[in-house]
Amino acid sequence: MAEDLVLDTAIRDWVLIPLSVVMVLIGILRYFVSKLMRTSQLPDAKIVKEGQVVIRARNLRAAANLIPLKSFRSRKVYYSNEENGLLFVPKGQAPNAQAQMFSDPNMAMDMMKKNLSMIIPQTLTFAWVNFFFSGFVAAKIPFPLTQRFRSMLQNGIDLSTVDVSYVSSRSWYFLNLFGLRGLFSLILGEENATDDTQRMMQMSGFGFDPSKGLSAEKDSLDIVQHEWALPKIEQRAEAVLRKFVG
Amino acid sequence: MVGAAEEAQLNRLENQVDNGGGGAWEYLCLVRKLKVRRSEKVLKHGLSILNDPKKRSKLGGDEWTLYEQVAIAAMDCQCLDTAEDCVKALKKKFPESTRVGRLEGLFLEAKESWADAETVYSSLLEDNPLDQVVHKRRVAMAKAQGNISVAIEWLNKYLEIFMADHDAWRELAELYVSLQMYKQAAFCYEELILCQSTVPLYHLAYADVLYTLGGLENLQTAKKYYASTIDLTGGKNTRALFGICLCSVAIAQLAKGRNKEDKEGSELSSLAAMALEKHYKQRASGKLPLLTATLRNLKL
């Protein structure tokens, strides 16, 4: 029975193509809107400094054996003493990410802008698709698929007898939503593509606390044992020279 | 750092462009990508593109990049009129841009109108107090005027925030050396060794500074760092070989009487002397007698 299903060409002209075109246009529009709303946020001097301190301390830890003991000790004290060491974070002063978000309205504002430019067009288009095109078959894939793909391709049609290779209109919307990324990177340039999936990942990573990095770095610096590598290198140099001369 | 393959490609392209074979734009792009300093060629070929409206319009948006490149090259060649034209064109196109602001500051520096450049830079810093390029320009400006101590002050302020910037540490070390403040320079070189522990030049420079500082302990440390330079370069660094010889002589003089360590050190220095002789034999056999005389004077 499934083979007999004939799709009206009007469906192609009035559903399939318009849906894709609208999705592309909305993607482009969203790109420009978010470009307009984006504020070039200046990094905070303190955060930049903390990042740099962590890098420098990491370098010290990695190459500690290459500098004399005296130099290493003075640096270690400079980083991790309990009064004004660079890596020392006084207790209770560590800024809580949550609290920081509330205290800094810019941050919340920024997040909201990002979310708005992402969520509003998505809900609107979803509502639009749902209202006008819900519940009918819009396309057919030229190859057969297993039953598992039914929820992906036939969202909105609750018929178990329709062959899985038919795509419902709502599923076509979802396929477009996630599949147009390549097209956007072609139109808008490589890194400008509005990539929802990546943005969602970023959201979940929000709340990184730099002071935690500082104290973690301090702990690992504290347990570094200094063992000067240079005396050994002297012997190695001797071997090198012997090989060269001999 | 420019790799050998890239350099060969660059030279080939330069040759081609010089002989009228076309490809000027590709050459300029490569120069920009590799960040090499060939200002005269860039000025010549860049101007030939800029003065030809047809070629220029073909570049589209890259036209402005070319303007910037030519402006910097012109400043390097002291063609200040050309530089001024380029900067003006850029300023007309991008009146609010920080990048053009920096270029303008650079141009004022080239004209040696230091006060004007300073005002430009400080207004740029007001917009973005963490602009690394502008901070560095200020240091360079103080250095160009001969105020080394002011340059050091600026650089220290810069390093207080951007303390992982090894180029800045290197600059600071060189400035300290030029003022003969060797202890401070030694600190900077230690920092550089920490950052990039496989660069032999930093080990060498650190050893030089320690040797200059003198004192038994410093000399022994210096010798160790000369040894590590030899280790890193595979014994090919002549300066390090000489350093070993000089250090062991100085240590032997200072440690006369307490002869506990000079036995193990003597082998390294005699090996270094032999390696030096071999180097001179291979590369500059005419100067070999000079070397042997020097080494004999050092009693090696």
Automatic annotation (TrEMBL), chain A:
Transferase listed as a keyword: no
Any Pfam family matching the protein: EMC3_TMCO1
Signal peptide: none
SMART domains in the cross-refs: DUF106 (SM01415)
A GO CC annotation given for this chain: EMC complex
Topology term for the membrane: Multi-pass membrane protein
GO annotation, biological process: protein folding in endoplasmic reticulum
Keywords, ordered alphabetically: Membrane, Transmembrane, Transmembrane helix
Localisation per UniProt entry: Membrane
Coiled coil region boundaries: none
Keyword Transmembrane helix in record: yes
Listed InterPro entries: EMC3, EMC3/TMCO1
Residues passing through the membrane, by range: 14-33, 119-143
Family: Belongs to the EMC3 family.
Protein name: ER membrane protein complex subunit 3
UniProtKB/TrEMBL annotation, chain B:
Localization per Swiss-Prot or TrEMBL: Endoplasmic reticulum membrane
Keyword Repeat attributed: yes
Cellular component aspect of the GO annotation: EMC complex
Quaternary structure and partners: Component of the ER membrane protein complex (EMC).
Pfam families recorded: TPR_EMC2
Source organism superkingdom: Eukaryota
Endoplasmic reticulum listed as a keyword: yes
Keywords per UniProt: Endoplasmic reticulum, Membrane, Repeat, TPR repeat
Ranges where the EMC2 TPR-like domain occurs: 99-209
Main location group: endoplasmic reticulum
Role according to the record: Part of the endoplasmic reticulum membrane protein complex (EMC) that enables the energy-independent insertion into endoplasmic reticulum membranes of newly synthesized membrane proteins.
Bilayer topology annotation: Peripheral membrane protein
Family as reported in the entry's similarity comment: Belongs to the EMC2 family.
Natural source organism: Protea cynaroides
Entries under InterPro entries matching the protein: EMC2-like (IPR039856), TPR-like_helical_dom_sf (IPR011990), TPR_EMC2 (IPR055217)
Name the UniProt record assigns to this protein: ER membrane protein complex subunit 2
